[in-house]
Amino acid sequence: MSRKAGSPGRDDVYDKAFKTIAQDAPSLLIPLVNHMFGRSYTDKAEIRFASDQAIYLDRTRRHRLMADLHIIVAENGAEEDFLLEIQSTPDSEIFNRISRYILGVTMRVLKDKTVDGHPYSVAKAPRTGLIYLRAPKKLTSPARLQIELSAGSAVHETPILRLVQMTLEDLLQNRLTVLVPFHLFRYASELAEIEQDKVRRETLLSEYRRIADTLNEYAASGEISTQESKLLAVLTEEVVNALASNQPLIREGK
Q1: What is the pTM of this model?
Q2: Do 106 and 125 meet the contact criterion of CB atoms below 8 Å apart?
Q3: What is the pLDDT of residue 83?
Q4: Which of 26, 40, 83, 133 has an alpha carbon within 20 to 30 A of 15's alpha carbon?
Q5: Per DSSP, what are the bridge partners of residue 153?
């Protein structure tokens, strides 16, 4: 989530990769939503993109918060809003921005009703989840936003997924192919050492061979489409090239 769209920098590669998957292969988001929020949506669930991907912070409309991904998942006549944020670097302001976005969206979707003759407004906040590619060591899950009301308080929870804590086996067992392109972040703090160690490079390379083989198997079995498999392979290469920009042997698979 950023204040303005189009901020330059290497981190944009990761944001762009995530958004590309969402746009071109939205069905891959369903297992991620199920995993993070304890849902059980099937492959038949419909995914739509919310119209309010940006919240303006002032009347001049010069300052805004851009969501990484705000989607609506619908199935069996019911639907839910989900805000998914992907964060590649530590950011002390991320929860502040998420909270402001939640409140901004909530106030824009107020629905007026009448209950027992009394005016009644319903505010529905999107469920939010944060995917940390590099997770700070001191970070508790879930993050909580507490809203104080005259009659009490309400707590909005944001589950946090730490990719560095998930093995390749974890990703595959939970069908989290949407996160496969970012697998190298598990080793981000060790890349300089791996670059100098042939045995560790070969171990890492074997994991990426397994990723390629698994994506091909999924495409052959219909778990994902051939186009989705190719997309994930291309984005995996882009992420590796960006993250291992100073490690040519890792990039070249040597």
Answers
A1: 0.81
A2: yes
A3: 87
A4: 40
A5: 148
